[in-house]
Specification:
Elements lengths: L12 E9 L8 E8 L6 E6 L7 E6 H7 L4 E3 L2 E5 L8 E8 L2 E8 H14 L11 H9 L3
Antiparallel strand pairs: 1-2, 1-8, 2-3, 3-4, 5-6, 6-7, 7-8
């Protein structure tokens, strides 16, 4: 009999979803995406976009930005996140990601992301992130010559 692996606190929390690129041709509209949160980097969430017809792209965004974006418009410049305004069907979440040569707007269901974020808050409560950062190591890394 096999036993399910127990998650250790240092294991990252992941969520696999499909993002729908609102302005891509139909054959490229569905993009698999993995959201990853690690207690070792408690302020951020990693988004790995794995479009079959494009190179793998990774974005790192603030967990607080994503959390706030599930309730209201959040972010500026290269990352913006907001919930759908419609209340008569499945609530969606919109993500607008921009860099110098690319702009993409994605849509996905909001509920799985909110549930996953709740799990990240159980692991590292909002406001407790700085307790997990090794500030001395960070200062040494920033001060050391490259």
């Amino acid at each position: 009999m096999s036993h399910p692996r127990t998650r250790r606190p240092e294991d990252p929390l992941t969520l696999d979803v499909t993002l729908h690129n609102l302005f891509a041709p139909p054959q490229d509209a569905s993009v698999p995406c993995r959201f990853t949160f690690a207690a070792t980097a408690p302020f951020s969430v990693r988004l790995d976009l794995m479009a079959p017809s494009a190179p793998h792209v990774t974005w790192v965004i603030g967990r607080d930005l994503l959390n706030r974006g599930t309730e209201e418009l959040s972010g500026a410049a290269d990352v913006r996140i907001w919930p759908s305004r419609r209340h008569d069907d499945t609530p969606f979440l919109y993500l607008r990601l921009e860099r110098a040569d690319v702009l993409a707007t994605f849509m996905t269901e909001r509920a799985p992301i909110r549930e996953w974020l709740a799990s990240t808050h159980e692991l590292v409560p909002m406001g407790a992130e700085s307790d997990l950062v090794d500030w001395d190591a960070l200062v040494c890394a920033l001060a050391s010559p490259r």
